[in-house]
Every structure is written in C-alpha cells, then in structure tokens.
Amino acid sequence: MEVGERSRCQHCHHPRHDGDCAICGCVRFEPVDLAKREARKRLWLVEASFLVRRGWTKAVEVRVKALGLSGAVMHGTREARRATLKPGTRVKQLRLTVVAVPKGGR
Q1: Where do the DSSP E strands lie in 14-71?
Q2: Domains assigned to the chain
Q3: Per-residue pLDDT tens for 43-71?
C-alpha cells in the first residue's frame, strides 16, 4: 500500500511524520486503507428541493456514494444545491428524501 503525503494513522488518526505519528508519538503507524473504505460505501438516491425567496424549487434527484445515512444527506445536499442554485442563494428550508439502493442493484 502506498503512503501518501496526507495519510493518517489507522490507530490514533493523527497525521504521519517520518514513519511515526506526529502528535502522540505512536510508533505503530499504519495508514488508513482508503480502497477498503471506498468498497464499503453504498449508493444512495437523494431527492432535494429548496425553499428560496421565490418559493420551492423543483425536486432534483442525485446519486451519491456514502458509508451511511448522514453522509448521504450531506453529500446529496451539496450536490443538489450545486446543480440547482446559483452561488450565494439563501436557502430557508430544505426538503429531502433519501433512499438506499440495494447492494445488488448497481
């Protein structure tokens, strides 16, 4: 496994520095396996609509990969906002529907 510049320790989650942990001095530095984490992610369908000054926008459906429900909500909200609204638009409320895609349905 290749160790990157910004890798973190799997045990203490501190950044790497010269083969050991930079903060706590943990000598058993093992980088977090990002490929293993990516394989655990699942696909989610997020449908979002925003309440802006002129009313509710049309619902936008985006597909995101995340480990859990909260990550799917976070990523889906960001993607839907980028897709529908101009930068700097103020959102008063948000309406979300999140559905997990079954593992075999990819």
Answers
A1: 16-17, 20-21, 42-52, 55-56, 60-66
A2: 1-37 (no CATH), 41-105 (3.10.20)
A3: 999 999 999 999 999 999 999 999 999 99
